[in-house]
## 1
Amino acid sequence: MFTRSVAHRIPLRAFKRWAHTTPTMNYRSVTEEDVAHFAKILAPSSVLSTLAPVSTPASELSIYNNDWMNKYHGKSTTVLRPKTTKEVSEIVKWCNERRIAIVPQGGNTGLVGGGVPIIDEVILNLGNMNKIRSFDPVSGIIVADSGCVLEAMSEYLVPHHYIMPLDLGAKGSCQIGGNVSTNAGGLRLLRYGSLHGSVLGLEVVLPDGTILDQLSTLRKDNTGYDLKQLFIGAEGTLGVVTGVSILSAPAPNASSNVMLALPKYENVLPLFREVKRQLSEILSAFEFIDRRAYELAVKHGQGRALNDEDVEGAECFVLVETSGGKREHDEEKLNTLLESLMEADEPLINTGVLSQSPLQFSQLWAIREGITEAVSKEGKAYKYDISIPVASFKTVVDTTRDHLQSKGLLRDDAVKHVVGYGHVGDGNLHLNIVAAEYSPEIESALEPFVYELVQSYKGSVSAEHGIGVMKTHALQYSKNATSIDLMRRIKTLFDPNGIMNPGKVLP
Ligand code: FAD
Ligand code: MLT
Ligand code: ZN
């Protein structure tokens, strides 16, 4: 049965640094016989394939084969868009028996190349599984298909006075299954914690096609190993998440935000302490934007620029959000904070721009959320998403810039900008190097330099975006050999044939 298909060794090309770690397993390309079989399992509109009998034009597969940054490119011939868990199970079983590799794909907004093929793996896109299965207005527990778009879930909850416990700039496209599979952090982690806490249950199709039903709606369940945790952040390497049960949070009655302009980075930490002390239970976000990141956001039309006098002399900005139960109470707290910050003998801030309306609230957030898009409009981004002590954010950005300067790469036709922004409250810096083009010269100047720098702070090379294909070789900077060995054994236990998202996460 296998003789007509071409066996691949993954990877065959592209990632030179993998030369010494080439996996030993073989995968098979999809054949016309496979496509004919998929067409029997799925509705006609759910099978896209350049192969007969379907024969979709290759251009229609492009959005599935290329990632959001247009940095990682696959050559899959076949995209499957199942509508039910049973369909997913049948596809996976077929692929496992024939050693056809699968890339689970959600909204394809990932930033580490995890959701696109390395060669021509089948793309299993979950976008057609987009139904809310149940919602309990007392507990706030929502159960949904994994292909539900995050923003659609948030909108579903509005009339019930609940909000999703996570929010990110990609909310309009990313899916809850992708969020769970990357253990996405985002803008609300400071308040609502990680998905390891708010996800209560999962339904997963295992690599042999078995449906693992752990779609619990219980807050407490100590019956042995908590298996669902393994799939949170597994980036599609252990199975396909098809259903998610998640605890939503009561919607705050009042939210406000203020953009604080700081004369120097050194003030960020004392400011964070003071903001926490004064705002305590109503503090819901504390986000960092350095001056260059702010300027890029404004240049590319993200949010509304602050007035010149508010920006003058600012080395960086912090966006503070409050979410609480009573508007007058929260506003009083925020105003008192601002007054005390401005009137201090040695003020930690130059100014604070307080939103006065829902529109201004959104405009301030748009500056912060829009940096990712601004960076990608400006050039090609090398994105390092790292956990390091907050006190070292500026040093790491400056050291990286100096390093690139010393290599003669800081020039308009090579590296245009080195910027920093991120989730200070979570110790998560987004170090972005914006280049004119992706080039081996820039990449080898950055790696392992950045990873060694992170390691010197005992940090993490991936705070929230995951490992994907980008950082498999860098896992060792944050995980010791024993941990990596255990991860590999878990992978083999779940996926002995190695069909599930090969070449991702594990080196
Ligand atoms: P995809 O990109 O499609 O896939 C991501 C990974 O998950 C891949 O490895 C894929 O194989 C796997 N996967 C997807 N769906 C499933 C499934 N159902 N079952 C098994 N595996 C699956 N990330 C953050 O953490 N915080 C942020 O603040 C943030 N902001 C962003 C802002 C912008 C503008 C953009 C473009 C990205 C941002 N991201 C952020 C990164 C990205 O949005 C998140 O990683 C998101 O969770 C990915 O969801 P997705 O549905 O797009 O997944
Ligand atoms: C963010 O915090 O804006 C996201 O993680 C995306 C990015 O790093 O650009
Ligand atoms: Zn982030």
## 2
Amino acid sequence: MQDAPGSPLETPLTSLPGVGPERASQLERLGLRTVEDLLLHRPRRYEDRRRLASLDELVKGEPAQVTGEIIAAGIKRFARGRKSVYEFILDTGSGRLHCRWWNMPFMESKFRTGDLMAVYGKVVSLRPPTIDHPDTETIESDDADEPGESSIHLNRIVPVHPLTEGLPPRWLRVLIWQAVTRLGDKVPEPHPDVALPDLPSRADAVRMLHFPEEMDDARLARERLAMDEFIDLQLNIQGRRKKLEARAAPLPCAGDNRLIKPFAAALAFELTDAQTEALREIRADMKDGAPMRRLLQGDVGSGKTVVAAIAALTAIESGYDVALMAPTEILAEQHFANFQRWFTPLGVPVHLRTGSRKTDRAMDQPDLPIASSQLSTLTIGTHALIEDGFEAGKLGLTIIDEQHKFGVGQRERLLRKGAYPHLLVMTATPIPRTLGLTVYGDLDISTIEHMPPGRGTVRTFVRAPDRLPKVWQFIRDKLAEGRQAYIVYPRVEETENTSLRAVTKEFKRIQAELAPHQVGLLHGRLSAEEKDAVMSGFRENSIQALLATTVIEVGVDVPNATVMLVENAEQFGLAQLHQLRGRIGRGGNESFCILVAETKTEEAKQRLAILEETNDGFRIAEFDLLQRGPGELTGRDQSGETSFKFGDLRKDGRLVARARQLVKEHLRQ
Ligand code: ADP
Ligand code: MG
């Protein structure tokens, strides 16, 4: 082995004996360039070849591994040569095993009678013992004579590595064996200050990963290597935050309650204990000089907005401006209307900044007392806030609503508008805890666990399209009782080749269906004024049913709306349906969510059934995580932080929490 600059682990594989250009390019295809890559090439499974199954131990339907000598082989063609089955028979010492490959005639050239084989696969029959499409490996007859190498492939737990076309499993296994024996102990501890006393060293873990003595070794090795990944990530996330705290000027926002008192007195309700607790945490952060970095999470309808309002007043009382960013114009407009109603009587100016509307005080708030020009302001907007033009005066607090709709990058850009202001991000998509610790690892978390009192229940039903006439009758009845309804469609315009019902096309039909009630139409392609007119009409109940796309997914709050019909519900993610459903159940009346879906498979049916079973967003998110994996849940911007070679966010909640805690303690020193 030649000396390469830097650590021996950075040695390119091309300088290992036996790795020529062809092998190197095959390894490259697997993403393996250096010795370190090779050492971390994770086996996809293991074969326990210490004790090989004897044929009378085979269980139908279970995988088994067997070795033996090929004593006969042949191919049978049928269906005029279009179909075939290639078969060889192994003499295993305890009987004959048939191995078959259907419609893979080229297998014939791979084996010869007399070859010694190890095979692994599911037993499809016991009479005669048969495995279809097994993994195979040729055992060299001199394996047993070569002391070093035979113990790599036989009489041990053997790793089965991911391969690529043309790369023999045994060759790769030997290469890895050589790397592990010669260089395995050169693998350094990446984080010597973070102790993991119950897990093997990283060097041992690498050896145990490929050549475990016991199956449990492989598990421990995987955990150790996963921990290293999680610790890396946490160091990165928490380190970033630590740097920020060191750089930021103190921003004391203790407030003095002169605005909060009258605000709370004018509220139509009392804060819940959960809201009060979240506020206590937020205000303790803001009082401190270091910038707050806090996530307020709470299920849809748990009442985050009013918590944000009080946080905003705390900053304003302390002489700082506040910015609030929401993902859609509809939601920004709704916040603008609410905050104006709340803050104008207190003399606090509220501005709006979206792609289509920018207010200034003279035009929109003629009622404000003159003296208020001294006061700090609240600016509400969409991502238009990030674009040029918006100059934050003395920005003390940035609030981001529905954070999961933004990327981390957008959040940072808004923060850069000020000099490290306090940050409060809110999300109604409760993400599973594991993922929260990862994606939001740099944030402290406050959770609103319980809904405000006086909410009617929401009942959810999944129905096939042929039940629609009954569903429409049900909605007509509810409208006649004075309630309002959302009708949600997946797309705006019917796209070619799909049978998706399109909102614009269905509008007329639904108007007829629901006459004499008024139906409004809302989708993303309308102008801001048009959207505004429809939303106001719905809010004032001059429109009783709102036919909409997912533009209403987040934030919209109309308590009298108690019915939601979602068509083509199978097109949506579970978290998204849960968000949508959060639009109803906001008043005291019982609410109904009807998901109309073509559920062709059992899996699709089960997926939607979870929404019938529970209203608990956390449970739904956990289920979604299991089904779809973390990438989709966190969105593109954040998924880079959730791809690991050894860690698995679906299962490693315990490890993630531990890594987070260890790094926290380490950085405190
Ligand atoms: P979300 O957490 O989804 O943003 P909102 O802030 O929109 O929820 O609140 C949902 C509804 O609950 C609003 O109509 C709000 O006025 C109401 N609400 C909030 N807090 C309380 C409370 N403590 N008691 C009663 N109603 C409340
Ligand atoms: Mg909200």
